[in-house]
Amino acid sequence: MTREQRLGHVFVELADSLVDDFDVIDLLHVLCDRSVELLQADAAGLILADPRGRLHVMASTTEEARLLELFVLQNDEGPCLDCYTTGQQVANIDLEEVSQRWPMFNAAAAAAGYRSTHALPLRLRGRTLGALNLFCEQRSTLSREDVDLGQALCDIATVALLQERAIRSGELLAEQLQGALNSRVVIEQAKGILAARADIPLDAAYALMRDYGRRNHRRLSAVAIDVTASTIGPDDLKTTNNA
Predict the structure, then answer these.
(1) Is 104 found in the same domain as 195?
(2) Domains in the chain, number
(3) Are the C-beta atoms of residues 223 and 214 closer than 8 Å to each other?
(4) Could you tell me the residue range of the domain that residue 129 belongs to?
């Protein structure tokens, strides 16, 4: 498959979320996964603002990226926050060259093994909902074309979050985002429970739940509830065909 063909598949995959009652959490994870794949990053994390404007880590491709994004929010410092605050792209950042700008973030990123980073806003018509942060283990320079591609992926995800029905109703948007936040808590709990029960890494536990949900056409949050309640166990999740 050529890169152009792969891009077509990815855009269709993201556009499929432009329907009623889509899974916000899954959409954001797809955005992280595909951005890492297409922009040759090593990990990604995504922060999203709740209805009160408070930022939360909503998706990540690795546990290290999730923890680094949490560190950013707790210490109020890092390119992802600058990107969200300004609504502008923060790309091609060599962390060694900006150690004085974000000293705590620089130290935490270096400890996690990252050398460079890029941040892209989730924005539409002057409104910024969050930001996607890409982490690279080596010095990484994105071309203007790559930055535009990454922004296009973020824009599709933002449109999905701010569909016309949500734009017309602030109450509906607040409900949608709050529901995503609540789902995230349940998913994190289930991920930890499953990791302990199956003696596997947290990333692997999340992947099992997500794959199971997709195979069986179920929301990730619903699968997480069943895992927490022990209705679904590790062996069930590993079964290749439960449809």
Answers:
(1) no
(2) 2
(3) no
(4) 3-162
Task: Provide mean pLDDT across the span 105-129.
Answer: 93
**DSSP-derived pairing of the beta strands 116-124 and 127-136:** antiparallel
Q: Return the amino acid letter for 237.
A: L
Tell whether the model's pLDDT for residue 112 goes beyond 90.
yes
- The alpha carbon of residue 68 and the mean position of all alpha carbons in its chain are separated, in whole angstroms, by 13
One domain, residues 53 and 150? yes
pTM for the full model? 0.70
3-state secondary structure the chain: CCHHHHHHHHHHHHHCCCCCCCCHHHHHHHHHHHHHHHHCCCEEEEEEECCCCCEEEEEECCHHHHHHHHHHHHHCCCHHHHHHHHCCCEEEEEHHHHCCCCHHHHHHHHHCCCCEEEEEEEEECCEEEEEEEEEECCCCCCCHHHHHHHHHHHHHHHHHHCCHHHHHCHHHHHHHHHHHHHHHHHHHHHHHHHHHHHCCCHHHHHHHHHHHHHHCCCCHHHHHHHHHCCCCCHHHHHCCCCC
C-alpha 113/C-alpha 124 separation (Å) is: 33
